Each structure stands twice: as structure tokens, then as C-alpha cells.
Amino acid sequence: MIEEIKTINDFNFKDQTALIRVDFNVPINKYYEIMDDTRIRYSIPTIKKIIYEKGKIVLISHLGRPKGIPSKIYSLKFLIRYLSEQLKTTVNFCENCIGQNVLNKVSELKNGEILLLENLRFYKEEEEENMNFAYELSKLGDIYVNDAFGAVHRFHTSITILPKFFGEKKCIGFLMKKEIQYLNQFLHGKGKRPITVLLGGAKISSKIEIIENIINFSDHILIGGGMSYPFIKIKGGNVGSSLIEKNRNIEMILKKIFQKYQNKMNIIHLPKDVVIADSFKNEANTKIVSIDSIPNGWMGLDIGPSSIKNFCKIIEKSKTILWNGPVGVFEFSNFSLGTRSIAKSIANITEKGAFSLVGGGDSIASLKMENCEKKISYLSTGGGAMLESLKNKTLPGINAIIQ
User: Fold this and answer.
1) pTM of the full predicted structure?
2) How far apart are CA 239 and CA 231, in angstroms?
3) Torsion angle of alpha carbons 150, 155, 160, 162, nearest 10°?
4) Residue 336 placed within a domain
5) Separation of alpha carbons 237 and 16, rounded Å
6) What are phi and psi for residue 102, nearest 5 degrees?
7) Could you list the active site residues?
8) Which of 321, 339, 311, 312 has its CA nearest to residue 225?
9) What are phi and psi of 301, to 5 degrees?
10) Average pLDDT for residues 310-337, to the nearest whole number?
11) Same structural domain for residues 166 and 218?
């Protein structure tokens, strides 16, 4: 599918203004220091290419969920210094996204100059697929570039409606191209075998469809974290007070999967044992039990030692690995061993030549805990978009470029 999509290599940006939708929705602390700059760093090559060709750049992004109300907390102003340092050039800022003031600033841009606009979500229209808002934004550029993989699964104005105003003059940036290429390796089973997919995290509803899609080409599907308990429950096990997402459809869909893929169930690996706690806190009393016999009043908060051993053994024999979601409550140090062990195991096998793709904020955070994020083949910049792609759906933002 990547062949059908125009990329920034299909355009020469000399004397052209590129309106680039980036995803600079990065985690920051109370001092506005960036805690993880992966998304921004991955967009730099796209920006540099356009500067090199003597084009002009207008950057648009969102940050957080201000719900249409401007506030200092969600302002993008803090990015000016960081971007100026990264790009070794002055980055200008405008406190609006639409209107005469913005148009004036855009018209004053010289070749090679950059203008960052304020948070798109200060306008409620951004989340409403609003035609008028898209039209006003479209006046700010000659060529539309989407390099915001982290937001490409959203039906938001700047993602799905804005590209319509650019006709043939729309494309994706280098970050988006890489994300699509690497995900396609998995979606079409093109990776070297054995292919292992590890799914964790609390929500199973967002990942059930993925299991149905990947079961046909995966050699191993490892399931940990809150995702594993509905499987155990349906098999008749006792999961005690472990957190299970409340969704009636889950049981029905899981039963269907068990029936439909009876002959493939051996590739789905669940934890054998778990570290359980008598309350949801780091200092809770703990013990290790079989995952299917958790006593009432106790909850599973991490995978146990034999599960760690089993999962790592499978990972170490893999040639292609995709990971999304922790296998325990890793933000509690006493329940982080499982997730940290998985992170180290994936990093080790990658160094030996396997291909690894990791997505989702929690998974990437756990890699950073172990200082091994640089050992992974590719860190996906969009957990939600990655999950939607794995359901074998064309994402709305990519559709908008193709149409």
C-alpha cells in the first residue's frame, strides 16, 4: 500500500510553503522539560529535507486535551527553544492557528524559515471534522504533509478534512513512511520467522481484533498483563480480584476465537504463574501463585518467574518481534520485573540480528528504565495508531492522503 501514497520525495519544495501536521504531543514535566522526545526527533528529517530544498514550513500539532479552551498549560510555546536547537535555526511562533495574524506571519516567511502554530486543540473544531476550520488552515500552505503517525487514527479536522483542500499536493513525511513500512512487515507476515507478537496492557477490547488478524501469520502470540485474565476466566480459572475490563462482548468474542481457531490455540501463550497482591499498591503483601487459582481478594499485578522464563525463551528464538503493552503494573517497582525482563530480552535478541518493533508509551517507558530503547530496531511513535493498523484497517489519515 505504501506504493500508492505520495511521500515528500515526490515534491520539490523550493519556494513552496509546506503545511506539516506533526505530532508533538510529548510528555512533559511541570518545568516543561520534555520527558520523551522520540516523536519530535523522528520528524526532524522531514523538516530538514524541506529546509534543504529552500521551502518554507508551517508546523501544526496538538498537545494534551484542552477541549477547545486555550490555556498556558497546553501551549506549544515551550517547543520553540528545543526545536531551534534541534534544527539549528530560528523557529518562529504564532499564538493562533487561523486568522489574518497567522496569514500575515506565513506571508512573511522566507525560504528555509519555520513557523510553529499554537495548539490545534485550542479550537474545538479540530476534533469535530469541521470543514470551515479545515478551509482556514488550508490557506497556510501550498503542500500538505502528514507526519503525525501518533494521530493518524483519529477523525480530526487536521488529519482527515484538511488534506481534501490540497488536491494532488498532499503527501506523507519520512516518519509516516517508516511506520507504514514496518507495520506492513507484520501485517503481511513478511518478517523473518519465527514471528512473535507480545500484547499486554490493561485493555483487551482494543486488542481482540488484533489477535484475530495476526493469528494466521504469527508463530507465537504472548499475552500478559490485564489482557490475560479474561482468557483465564473463560477457560474456567479463578482470577480473584484481578482487574478485568467490563465489556460483555469480550467473553463472546473470546469464545468465538477459541472455537474458530481451535487448531491454532497452541500459538497463544498465557502466563503460567503470577505475582499477586492483596491491594493495588507497591507496598502490598505479595505471593506467587498459578494464574488460574488466584484467591478471592487478591489480584495479579505481574507475571511470575516461570512465565518470565517461558516468554523470554520464546523471544530469544524469534527473528521478528512486535511488542505493545506491559505485562504487569510496571510503574510499581515491586511489580515491574516481568515487563523489564521482556524489555531486556527483546533488546538482547535485536542486538543478535532480530527485527523488533515496539509501540505504546508504557512499553517504551519500560525500555528506557533498562536503558535499552536504542537497542530496538524501531520505536513506533503511535501506540493507538499502531493497534488500529494491526487490525488490518487503513487508517483515516492515510486514506485522506490516498483519496
Assistant:
1) 0.90
2) 10
3) -100
4) yes
5) 62
6) -65, -45
7) 39, 203, 361, 384
8) 339
9) -120, -5
10) 96
11) no
237-266: pLDDT as tens digits? 999 999 887 777 888 888 888 888 888 888
For residue 246, the model assigns a pLDDT of: 75
CB 156 within 8 A of CB 137: no
CATH number at residue 267: 3.40.50.1260
Query: Structural domain of residue 134, as residue ranges?
Result: 2-175
How many helices and strands (H and E) does the chain possess? 13, 17
Amino acid at 66: P
Concatenating the DSSP letter of every residue in 272-323 gives SEEEEESSSSTTS-EEEEETTEEPTT-EEEEE-HHHHHHHHHHHHT-SEEEE
pLDDT at 3: 66
| 8 A C-beta contact, residue 109 and residue 17 | yes
| Structural domains of the chain, count | 2
DSSP at 161 = I
**Beta carbons of 339 and 328 less than 8 angstroms apart:** yes
DSSP 160: I
Contact 210, 184 (CB under 8 A): no
Contact 194, 319 (CB under 8 A): yes
